[in-house]
């Protein structure tokens, strides 16, 4: 009797398989076969294929939060803390960048309205953790404005990162800095 794989092992196996076949072509029965288990072992951790996507982005969120523990961050200004944290988030996704983009396209398919709603909630959740890890203390209208502007910076940077896989990290950081220095956002970050 094979040992039941952990959620992390299932996710890693799925990502590695998807690197070869693509996210759309990945089937959960193939993941089970590769791990030498039945589909029930997969279902124990993931009710559907999209739960793997959520787990993948949860892993990136955890990398961001882990980076937030760095003692060196407290000495940095808000803009630099946000930069470091988002780079840690992107770094966690980097080993499977192409599959990450395919996952997003899968969520955006017209028939996947329920996944699109989950995607919006995911963006909101990641931006919330990003703000928290950066120790942002803005309140009320300033917090709402900051969240909205940070969401735009996050999405523009993430899409750029997906579309330019060969870009140097320094160039990506420069783009992110420009996003964080947009007129109204820089005023909020300097409060």
Number of helical elements: 10
Order of helices and strands: HHHHHHHHHH
Structural class: mainly alpha
Instruction: Tell me the fraction of residues in β-strands, as a range.
Output: under 5%
Overall radius of gyration: 18 Å
Strand elements, count: 0
- Low-confidence regions: none
User: What about the largest sheet?
Assistant: none
pLDDT average, as an integer? 95
Helix content: over 70%
Please, what is the oligomeric state? single chain
Measure the end-to-end span.
Answer: 60 Å
> Judging from the principal axes of the Cα atoms, what is the shape?
elongated
Protein name: TetR/AcrR family transcriptional regulator
InterPro entries: Homeodomain-like_sf, HTH_TetR
Keywords: DNA-binding
